[in-house]
């Protein structure tokens, strides 16, 4: 959708707007228009922006044998069932 900047009339096609400008306002259409539809720019979403700057959630590990949680990374054995942990596969 194109909007006449002079009278506010909306036209579906760029060439219709060009013709409208020439016929009704005696204005030649600009050769190039870097922003043909400024209204199409989506509004910023503040909630999404806030999510980006939040720290990543703290990760809790749990014992795969008994389900005990939380297990701190680097713990060598489960305090509940005594199962050994291998942290080599976890980054
Ligand atoms: Zn107009
Ligand atoms: Zn366990």
In short, what is this structure?
With 91 residues, the protein is mainly alpha-helical. The protein is built from two helices and two strands; from the N terminus they run E-E-H-H.
Explain the overall architecture.
The structure is a single chain. The protein is mainly alpha-helical and 91 residues long. Among the domains are: 1-33, Double Stranded RNA Binding Domain (2-Layer Sandwich), CATH 3.30.160; 57-85, no CATH class. It is 22% helix and 4% strand. The protein is built from 2 helices and 2 strands. Strands 1-2 form a two-stranded antiparallel ribbon. A hairpin with a 6-residue loop joins strand 1 (2-3) and strand 2 (10-11). The radius of gyration is 31 Å and the shape is rod-shaped. The model has no long low-confidence stretch (mean pLDDT 81). The site of one zinc ion (ZN) has 7 residues, from helix 1.
Profile the largest sheet. Answer: 2 strands, antiparallel
Q: What compounds are bound to the protein?
A: zinc ion
| Unreliable runs | none
CA gyration radius, whole angstroms: 31 Å
Lateral arrangement of strands in the main beta sheet: 1-2
**Architecture (CATH level 2) name of one domain:** 2-Layer Sandwich
Sum up the overall morphology in one term: rod-shaped
> Strand tally, please?
2
Q: Helix tally?
A: 2
First-residue to last-residue Cα separation? 51 Å
Helix percentage range: 10-25%
Q: Round the mean pLDDT to the nearest integer and report it.
A: 81
Order of helices and strands: EEHH
CATH third-tier fold name of one domain: Double Stranded RNA Binding Domain
CATH class category of one domain? Alpha Beta
Task: Briefly note the structural class of the backbone.
Answer: mainly alpha
Strand content: under 5%
């Amino acid at each position: 959708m194109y909007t006449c900047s002079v009278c506010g009339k909306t036209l579906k096609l760029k060439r219709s707007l060009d013709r409208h400008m020439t016929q009704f306002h005696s204005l030649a259409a600009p050769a190039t228009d870097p922003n043909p539809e400024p209204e199409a720019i989506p509004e910023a979403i503040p909630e999404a922006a806030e999510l980006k700057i939040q720290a990543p959630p703290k990760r809790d590990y749990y014992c795969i044998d008994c389900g005990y949680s939380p297990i701190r990374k680097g713990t060598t054995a489960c305090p509940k069932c005594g199962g050994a942990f291998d942290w080599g596969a976890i980054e």
